[in-house]
Structures are given as C-alpha cells and as structure tokens.
Design goal:
The complex is a heterodimer.
Chain A lengths: L20 E6 L3 E8 L2 E4 L9 E2 L2 E3 L4 E3 L1 H5 L8 E2 L14 H4 L5 E5 L2 E6 L2 E3 L1 H20 L5 E6 L5 H13 L4 E6 H13 L3 E8 L4 E9 L2 E10 L5 H15 L6 H20 L2 E8 L2 E8 H25 L7 E7 L6 H11 L12 H13 L9 E5 L4 E5 L3 E6 L4 E2 L1 E8 L8 E7 L9 E9 L10 E8 L5 E7 L7 E6 L5 H10 L5 H30 L5 H18 L4 H38 L1
Parallel strand pairs in A: 1-11, 11-12, 13-18, 15-19
Antiparallel strand pairs in A: 1-2, 2-3, 2-4, 5-6, 5-7, 8-9, 9-10, 13-14, 14-15, 16-17, 19-22, 20-21, 20-24, 23-26, 24-25, 25-28, 26-27
Helix pairs in contact in A: 3-4, 5-10, 6-7, 6-8, 8-9, 12-13, 12-14, 13-14
Chain B lengths: L2 H4 L10 H15 L9 H22 L1 H11 L14 H16 L6 H29 L2 H32 L1
Helix pairs in contact in B: 2-3, 3-4, 4-7, 5-7, 6-7
The chains are: A alpha+beta, B mainly alpha.
Chain lengths: 618, 174
C-alpha cells in the first residue's frame, strides 16, 4: 500500500483529470442522486425534472419501470409493483412474515431469503434495488455527460452486515463501482460540516417516515469520527399521521373504516400535519365512508398527540450520549435529517434537549444525498487536498455462538473500523478435524435474540488429542462495515479451509450468476465486463507502482528495481490485449514482486506521518 | 506487536493521551482506506490491515487497564486471557461488601444518593490502585511487575463494578 498515497497533495504523479462521481441516497420511500459540480453539491434531476425518485419498481408486461412511472401504474398492477424494498434487504423469508400482509405483492422464499414473485419471475431485493440504482446512475450519467467512475451509497446506521452486503451486491449488479458505503447520518453531517468548518461534537437527528436514527459525531481538525449511533427502527414520522388519524376517528366516532376510508383519513392527517408546520391551527373537511367530516386541529392539540413520539426519540438521544460518554451540553451542533423534522415540536424539543438551535438550512430530504456527493467527489480523487477523513464505527457487536446457545462478543459495537480481532478455539474431541462456527451480530446474550450472519465450517484441522489444536479465527471488518473471516491452526500453521454460508445473503457465485443471467447483461457483456475490470485494475497497479518507484526507488537494490521494471513492462503490454486471465496473472506477479517494497514504503510512511506531526507541534 | 513503537512513543504507563490521540489521527489520516478508494486491490487490502492495526493499538493504549496489560505483555507477563482466582481475603471481602451495596440500590430510599455514594467509593479505590499500578510499572523490576499484574487483576473487578453500576442507573432511569 502507501504506493499511491505517498504523493503529497498537489504532487500526484498521474496527470489530473476530473472524474465523474455521484452520491446516492437509496431510501425506503424515495431515492436521490447528487454530484459536486463547480465545487457545489446539487441533487440531479431526471428528464422529467424530478430529483426525488420514488423507490418503486414495476415489472410490466414488456418493460421494467422505475420511479414515477411505476407509481402511476401501482394501483392497477399492485402485485408487480415493488415498493419499500429496502425493508427486505438482507432479510430472511421467515423474519419478513410480519410485513407480508402489509405488502400488496407476494413474498416468496428464495433459499431462505425473502424475494418477490413478479410476472418477470422471482426477484430478490438485490435485483430490485439494482434497478433503482441503475436508474439513478443513468440520470447522473446523462446530466454529468459520461459514465460514472464511482459512487458513494448511503445506508442507515443500524444496517447490519447482511444488509450492507446486500446493498453492495445491488450496486455490483447495477454495474456501479462503489467507493464507499456511508452511514446516512454521517453523510448529513458531512453536508453541513464542510460548509461551516466547525469543530466539536455533532448530533445527527434523523426522523424519517418509518425509522429514527441518532448519531453522535466528533469533528476535529478535519476528521469526522462517529462516536456512537442508536435509534429505533420502528419509530417514524408516519406515527404522527397515525396519531392524527386516531384523533380524527375520535372526533367522528367512525372506528370501523374501509380500506379507502382509511386512506382518506391518512391523506387528511398528512395535510393537517403539514399545515401545522407554519400555522397555529389547521382546518379539515373531507368525506370518508359516506360521512362528511370537518373541524379544526390546533397546533397545541397536535403537539399533545405527537409529544409521546418525540419524547421517545429524546430518550434514544440520552442513551446514545451515554454510549459516547457525553452530556447534552457538550453537543455543539445538531443536524436535522428527514422530512419529519419539519414539525416545529420536533425542532423545539430537540433544541431544548441539546440546548442549541438545530441546523435546518439544508433541505432535510436532500441533505444525505448531498453529503454522499461531497464524499464521492473526495474519494474518486477530484480533491487534491485530502482534508476530510471519516472514521466510522460498527453499529452492532459481532460475536460467536458458544456452549449453551450464548453469544460471546468478539468486536463490541461502536468499535472504530476497519478492525481486526482474533479469537482462539480448541478442539474438544480426540482426532477432531472439523469445527462449526456460528457468527452473530447484536447486543443480546442469547443466540436466538441476535442476528445470524454466517455459519463457518473449518475443515482440514490436523488430527490431534482434544485441546491440542489451536485455531485462530480472525474477524476483519473493512471501512464499509463488511465482515471477512479467516482461520488458521496455530501449531502447524495450516490454514483451515472455510466454507462460508451467509445466513441472509448471497454468495459471490450467486451474485456472479445474477449478473450473467440478467437480461441487461448478456454473456458477451459479462466477459467484456470482466476484461474491463482487469484492465482498470491493471491501470491502477501501473499507476501506483510507477508513482512509488518515482518517489521511493532508492529503497530498492538494483536487482529488485530491474525485476519490478520488467514486470511493469510485461503488465503494460498484456493490458493492451484482451486476455483477461493473462492480465490477472501479470497483476498478481507484479503484486508479489512489490509486496516487500510496499511494506518498506509503509514503514517509511509511518515515520513520515509521525515526523510531520512532530513538526506541526513545534 | 509493540504498540508504543507504532506511535513512536516511550513505553511507559504514564502516557500523554492528547499526544497519543493526535498521533493516532495523523496515522489514520495517512492510511485510512478512503485514501485508497481508487487504488489497486492489493494496496486497498494493505490499507485495511494497517488501519485495523492502528485502531487496535490506539484502543489498547487509550485505556489504562489495557495499556498496563500491553506493557506487561511486552515485559513477558501475559495476563489478558488468564483464568485465575483470588486468594487475598481482605480484597474479596471488600468486593463482596461493594456488591451488596450495589444490590441494595434499587430498594434504598433515595437510589440517586445510593448510586453517588457507591460511585464515589469506586472512584476513590480505583484512584488508589491506579497510582500504585503506575509506581509498580515505573519501577519495572521482576517483583514490581508481578505486583503490577496483581493490581491489574484487582482493577478489573473495580471496572466491572463500575459497569454494573451504570447498568443499574440506566435501569432506574428507564
């Protein structure tokens, strides 16, 4: 590593050209895409002039529609019109059963995973989300005038490993290069943080339609650090509407409502809520189930109805502050996200709790996408000066099943990622050659209360007496919050073979099969794509090693230098041809030859970082 | 791995935490995977491993107990995963008394006062033990290192009690 990185800001070895990058807010109800243009982050509008695209996909008789078109056909073709797919991401069939009766489309079991039966066949949430992502990417390509080099996609802070992996798989299926999965609240803080250049602790209060998130971040010397996250995935602005519906029913005495009647109440409730944002009273007048209703709701009455809901969110705020070891007065800024934060009661109670006026100058529906766009622009390499660094934490603890159905935590929640932690196991039978390991995510003690992520079978353990073999299992979580597991028998150094079976996810092979199987990517396309991927990788290696030699060639002896140069020449040559396997082999050869060089550069780089640091202090 | 070396800091228990924090950030800034979003796969992987190391090192040096454990491990005394029971009767007695006090909080007349009282005791005891620990680690003789290991074991009990106290406080609030 450190190969590309060491080039100091403004000294990049490669000629600088602007790369196209976008930030995507893949929402439950609506999705947005945004990009930085001329230094300014803006949401991008599609041909119809909309930037908020309903997260709805319709599998029509002869084509697939996404967004407004899909919504328009929803009533007539409900069973083929998929909305709220985000709620199904990375979920097992069994655990989505409570949702089944609320959804007008048919859920089916696809090898344990939840999927949807449509006229175009069974579609899993990864495929449906890929349609939405591809549509947003198309919009971005059209507006920006070229293919995207990379995207940043936001995910809720509470998303577990399976849900993050599913999101990344969807992007891969849509043919997108994911620079980073970014937590939604972090993106929101980024949108505000960069503009204001503030330092201190920031709370991000995100009240969406159906979920509530609270995150505590610290911004210091251009570094964002997520200190803690919390919230409630079954609490949202929709509950305000429900509270008003309940009140309206009390006024009218209509307690049994037809399906249509219920919708009319709901529409009236939303209107009242919106009116009360700017007015002290709001009038209603509508007909539902043949009864005419009219009257007035005051803001004071509404605030009494919604007060309990807001107080519940404040309780979560208190909890998350405790996790971060902070008191409310230590929070310098509060960022508001989600349409429901327009409700004045939310703003005033949140302001009261944190004793500061919440930030509301950026549209709370767009702030996440804008932050993602800013981060995408940085990550793709358009900002010469790397001012912002985002340190993230894992939202939920990772652990293992131990004897008696109990969970043992290996990496506790709110640990800064990337992180690697090892756990040692031993055999309990003579001559045991295999061992089952169950990976879990969650805070509870019992296995059944946590979420099963994967089951691993370690094979090829050398036969030894009970307790003789020492198997070291290493958990590694990358910057996207995704988990990788490796295992090794310590006394013999034998790397035990691992069979991974994600509990609620797709294997690499399945994703590859979906890519080649989808109608949009015929077999020819697939091979083209694999070749293109290797060529891009070859370019990266050539650029990185070239820059490294220019800067640190002195760290090599003449023979090493000659070998590396010859490997680079070979790689540059095969890269021009279309033999995917040969390019791959040349990349691997170059990597092996430069591993040691990279390690030496890393050591040097550490010393430099600390050195530069010391100079700063003086 | 020597975590002190990674941050180029002296291997002592009394550590300047502000300095540690800013060195940590300097290294993170240099090696975080976000810097490698457009780099080659191998470089990205190395960046993930390196930052994982840096995070682990920071985590281990930031907290006094883990820092003491790491320092002792560097001196050849591994105590992080040992199974050992205490034989010091005075200490065990004290622990039992504190535990009883914890259990009585929920039924006491003024739980808030009771929590404060226990918390104060815990803080006081911790302070004393930490001071002894610092002195033993500073001396760095075979005997004093053994003494330090014993102090770490005792401190673990106090940190555990503190954690339980916080849980009780939380339950009372909810």
């Amino acid at each position: 590593m450190a190969l590309l990185q060491i080039a100091e800001p403004g000294q990049s070895a490669a000629p600088h050209h602007h790369k196209l990058a976008a930030g995507i807010d893949l929402g439950t109800t609506n999705s947005l895409v945004a990009a930085v243009r001329s230094g300014q982050a803006n949401t991008l509008h599609n041909a119809a002039g909309n930037d908020m695209i309903p997260s709805v996909v319709r599998y029509g008789p002869d084509k697939t529609e996404v967004g407004q078109d899909a919504v328009a056909a929803a009533a007539a073709d409900a069973s083929n019109t998929i909305f709220s797919i985000k709620r199904l991401m990375g979920k097992g069939y069994a655990e989505t059963q409570p949702l089944a009766e609320l959804l007008p489309y048919q859920l089916v079991d696809q090898g344990g995973l939840a999927a949807v039966a449509t006229r175009a066949g069974v579609k899993n949430p990864v495929e449906v989300s890929a349609e939405i992502l591809a549509t947003l990417a198309d919009t971005a390509s059209q507006v920006l005038g070229g293919e995207l080099n990379g995207v940043v996609i936001t995910v809720p802070a509470y998303f577990d490993d399976a849900q993050r992996q599913a999101t990344k798989d969807a992007a891969r299926l849509a043919g997108l290069n994911v620079l980073r999965l970014l937590n939604e609240p972090t993106a929101a803080a980024l949108a505000y943080g960069l503009d204001s250049g503030q330092e201190g602790v920031i709370a991000v209060y995100d009240l969406g339609g159906g979920t509530f998130d609270i995150s505590i971040l610290r911004l210091k010397r251009g570094v964002f650090e997520v200190l803690a996250t919390g919230g409630d995935s079954a609490l949202g602005g929709d509950d305000f509407d429900q509270a008003i519906v309940g009140w309206l029913q009390q006024q009218s005495g209509q307690h049994q409502l037809s399906h249509t009647g219920r919708r009319q109440y709901l529409t009236a409730a939303r209107k009242l809520k919106e009116q009360l944002t700017d007015n002290d009273t709001a009038d209603y007048s509508f007909i539902a189930d043949e009864q005419k209703l009219s009257g007035t709701l005051s803001r004071a009455e509404f605030e009494q109805l919604g007060g309990a809901l807001v107080k519940k969110t404040i309780r979560s705020c208190r909890q998350v502050l405790r996790d971060a070891d902070l008191t409310p007065d230590e929070v310098a800024k509060v960022v508001m996200v989600g349409g429901s934060t327009r409700v004045p009661l939310v703003r005033s109670l949140v302001g009261q709790f944190f004793a500061t006026e919440p930030l509301t100058s950026i549209d709370p529906d767009k702030v996440v996408a804008l932050g993602a766009a800013i981060q995408a622009n940085v990550l793709v390499g358009n900002k010469a000066e790397h001012e912002t660094l985002l340190l993230d934490v894992i939202p939920l603890s990772l652990g293992l099943e131990t004897m008696g159905g109990l969970t043992e935590k290996v990496i506790p929640r709110n640990t800064v990622i990337p992180v690697a932690r090892a756990q040692e196991f031993t055999t309990f039978k003579d001559g045991q050659t295999a061992m089952a390991i169950h990976v879990l995510q969650g805070e509870r003690e019992l296995v059944e209360d946590c979420r099963s992520l994967a089951r691993f079978e370690l094979r090829g353990i050398p036969p030894m007496p009970a307790g003789g073999a020492h198997i070291k299992v290493t958990f590694q979580v990358d910057a996207d919050g995704l988990l990788n597991v490796s295992a090794e028998e310590k006394s013999t150094g034998v790397a035990a073979g691992i069979q991974v079976k994600p509990s609620y996810g797709l294997t690499d092979d399945q994703v590859a099969a979906m890519i080649s199987g989808s109608m949009q990517h015929a077999r020819q396309d697939m091979q083209q794509r694999l070749l293109r991927e290797q060529q891009v990788e070859a370019d990266r290696v050539l650029e990185a090693v070239g820059a490294a030699l220019a800067q640190d060639g002195v760290l090599l002896d003449p023979q090493e230098l000659a070998e590396i140069k010859s490997a680079l020449a070979t790689l540059a040559q095969v890269r021009q041809q279309d033999d995917t396997a040969a390019i791959k082999a040349a990349i691997e050869h170059t990597n092996t030859l430069t591993d040691d060089f990279a390690a030496r550069r890393m050591d040097k780089s550490i010393r430099q970082a600390l050195q530069g640091h010391k100079v700063d202090e003086v | 791995m020597n975590y002190f070396q990674l941050f180029d800091l002296p291997a002592t228990f009394e550590l300047d935490l502000t300095e540690l924090g800013s060195r940590y950030l300097a290294l993170q800034r240099k090696f975080h995977p976000d810097n490698y979003a457009a780099a080659s796969n191998r470089d990205r992987l190395m960046s993930v491993q390196q930052t994982a190391n840096i995070n682990d090192a920071y985590h281990s040096l930031k907290q006094p107990l883990l820092r003491a454990e790491h320092l002792l491990a560097l001196r050849g005394l591994k105590i992080s995963h040992e199974q050992r029971s205490f034989t010091d009767p005075v200490f065990l007695m004290q622990q039992m008394e504190l535990r009883e006090q914890l259990e009585e909080i929920s039924t006491s007349e003024d739980p808030d006062d009771a929590i404060m009282a226990v918390e104060q005791q815990l803080q006081q005891q911790r302070k004393v033990l930490l001071k002894q620990l610092a002195a033993a680690l500073e001396a760095n003789t075979a005997e004093q290192n053994q003494q330090a290991a014993e102090l770490v074991r005792k401190l673990k009990f106090f940190f555990k009690l503190q954690h339980e106290l916080e849980l009780i406080e939380q339950q009372l609030q909810d």
